[in-house]
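Re: [ENG-882] Designed sequences occasionally contain unexpected residues at chain ends

Forwarding the minimal case from QA. Structure tokens:
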């Protein structure tokens, strides 16, 4: 599924305003392949305009097995952890609790 001109405009405007875009603004981002294709198109547009900003897209897991996609500008949101937190806050998602087994807690 190719992104429409309107989807590209909404994504670009949202990324420029808040540093990221989620399915809250573009429901089609539910689809991982669409999210990646949109990210590629946005990057090509930025390169063509010689605009700053490295865009990255990734699906993140949340409590209850929910998986959500985000496209973010790594010049604004510097880490994956920060992107995941931004996505959780934007979409009102619960971050999963990491529970290590006793074996995984051992330091060598």
């Amino acid at each position: 599924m190719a992104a429409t001109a309107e989807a590209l405009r909404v994504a670009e405007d949202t990324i420029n305003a808040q540093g990221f875009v989620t399915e809250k603004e573009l429901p089609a981002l539910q689809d991982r392949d669409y999210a990646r294709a949109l990210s590629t198109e946005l990057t090509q547009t930025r390169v063509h305009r010689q605009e700053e900003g490295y865009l990255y897209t990734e699906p993140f897991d949340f409590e209850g097995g929910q998986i959500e996609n985000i496209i973010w500008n790594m010049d604004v949101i510097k880490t994956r952890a920060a992107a995941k937190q931004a996505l959780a806050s934007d979409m009102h998602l619960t971050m999963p609790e990491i529970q290590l087994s006793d074996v995984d807690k051992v330091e060598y």
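QA comment: On inspection the terminal residues look reasonable. The helical segments are 5-18, 32-48, 80-91, 102-105. Proposing we downgrade this to a documentation issue.
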